[in-house]
């Protein structure tokens, strides 16, 4: 075992982690621990753009952006956080441009902007061009640019170090109100050697991304297994609003590979088997550019009412055939190549089969607007921060608008990086790491390695598949008490099976079999929280749609869900929504 | 996304028997092989023609041999984790469909060449990233930054568009015969990374970078074998980018 000491440790090297590192490493001795090489992070798969009211191509204002974000999030957004997000958006884009990000340009050389779902002019009048973009690989460009800046600043990376435990100096659930609980460090498994490392740090930032692999059909990478959220939960911290999961309307049918909303921003149209532009019925004003939750539900509804396309009538069609091939090549080159490569469909001449795909967790580790992690509704854990998809500020509420996540990672990654470094400078030393700090991780690794050739009968892949199938079947776009009860039962049974899971690789080095077994443990924890939150929320709001409670119920549910892991299962609590300017209204587009 | 073995994407696709011959090695040794010893192992699986090689590898790992080691993440060709040698060509396992290989013969899968093998299909990427860091892959400017964005015309932006697509999978560099034999050569990817900045109208560090590439480890090692261009899963014209750098060095003009 090797021991390390830093002022700030950042867990995760996607957009939020590296944006934080750029700030923190200028102010404090910083280490970035990442399960993957930084350039492999899933920020790189984001396509369409990053929202900011630059008003480079038409009239726009940050205030309209704030309103759209709140309405898009079905009024579960914390409005003070949304104001920060949208006001700081402009500098966030300009900062990236100055770092060298190659945005697409207007004829006069400014950052170009395009339309995206739910982003409107003057509180919903019409779609507005707010998304700053770089073809359909904006996330790739952001990830590359941030990595390049990290090289320039000589940020210290620990690549392929898989963080598995968070060490605090007290029990966050037992500690009373106002009592201090502080971060002491993290424990990580070095994948190339199998060695366990302890990192003592004054500040720790979690930027570990999402948990899309709880579902079968997802745009998420294999590696997005909710690790950071799972670690936080195990450490006694709450997760907020986990029942809100975004299903992106346009995943390649059967595969889930993401086709950017930019396809519709650039003029693409969704059609059912009858060729009808069905979004005109669901969102008469902005049609195909309605927010994702509405479009995904409309698509699923077309399919279940028998208007799906294809031999099994189980998808709808994304029609780009009326766009000029040159325009497609310039603005949407990657996603059209995905259609060709994986479905053998030529988007110039044929519509592309699409169906909703699990895409984004609106919920996560609750934080303040400075990125400080909350251990209950009001107390923060000293020195602990979270940013990006693993966090819940909450700027996305019940449904995130497209292009607001690339914005989120930059605005709140930056804020967390600054706050973490400033806190580190303000304290003498981190709490002492006990000698047995690594015991839990050592225990997990030893136990799983001990299953090789043993009695265990369950396979990691089988348990994971069963989990993903039940989540797709029961906790997707449409939910009700019966489907959620079924998912609850299956998840509980799978958690039992997980105890008898056996792996096959006995080695310490690059034991990816062991890695997948650990990841599965996190997936099961997260899935349970999603299901419990969804069962308790007897209303429909944003990405959470209950067929047995089809309307929003502000009377009972205009609050965040706070989920805690306890020995007796998940305990749910609530947290008030911060409302500054915009009282909840009916959500029509 | 998940493996598609059970549910073909669109319409019905018949399942096929596929053999994969994988070049393996285990740094800690196995019952039959010494630590680090390279050996071939053949697996047979049932798959669909529309499956990716990555799906086939997952099927082996998840159903037959959990110790098979390879990197992967996004599974649709944008993260650059799973470059490997498939039927003697560098490709991304997640972007290569079984139907595009000859299913009558075993599919040969090996780690990419020229980087130290760690375990099975996993290689040590550090020398590759070290070359990238050498060429100062970040925007260099002088003077005060403007308050708004730096202006750049669409034409200026287009000038280096191709090389911004790079996902650093190392398919190009590890397909280069010079890189295999010459431990000093930066390799094509580092030159692509430099090209992306040299031809960016906002950058002022182009001559520093060109000086690095003019070095004995630099562009003059390139013998225009075109392997890199053929290997690039992003369709970047790598050899063309290298010649543009060479031309800038000979003419002194960008």
From TrEMBL, chain A:
Residues 7-406 form the FAD-dependent oxidoreductase 2 FAD-binding domain. It is a peripheral membrane protein. It comes from the Bacteria. Keywords: Electron transport, FAD, Flavoprotein, Membrane, Oxidoreductase, Transport, Tricarboxylic acid cycle. Its cofactor is FAD. Pfam families: FAD_binding_2, Succ_DH_flav_C. Residues 464-589 form the Fumarate reductase/succinate dehydrogenase flavoprotein-like C-terminal domain. It is an enzyme of class 1 (oxidoreductase). It is found in: Membrane. Its EC number is 1.3.5.1. InterPro entries: FAD-dep_OxRdtase_2_FAD-bd, FAD/NAD-bd_sf, FRD_SDH_FAD_BS, Fum_R/Succ_DH_flav-like_C_sf, Fum_Rdtase/Succ_DH_flav-like_C, SdhA/FrdA/AprA, Succ_DH/fumarate_Rdtase_cat_sf, Succ_DH_flav_su_fwd. Belongs to the FAD-dependent oxidoreductase 2 family. FRD/SDH subfamily. This is Succinate dehydrogenase flavoprotein subunit. It comes from Demequina sediminis.
UniProtKB/TrEMBL annotation, chain B:
It is an enzyme of class 1 (oxidoreductase). Residues 156-178 form the 4Fe-4S ferredoxin-type domain. Pfam families: Fer2_3, Fer4_10. NCBIfam families: dhsB (TIGR00384), PRK05950.1 (NF004616). Its EC number is 1.3.5.1. Belongs to the succinate dehydrogenase/fumarate reductase iron-sulfur protein family. It comes from Demequina sediminis. This is succinate dehydrogenase. Its cofactor is [4Fe-4S] cluster; [3Fe-4S] cluster; [2Fe-2S] cluster. Keywords: 2Fe-2S, 3Fe-4S, 4Fe-4S, Iron, Iron-sulfur, Metal-binding, Oxidoreductase, Tricarboxylic acid cycle. Pathway: Carbohydrate metabolism; tricarboxylic acid cycle. It comes from the Bacteria. CDD domains: fer2. SUPFAM superfamilies: 2Fe-2S ferredoxin-like, alpha-helical ferredoxin.
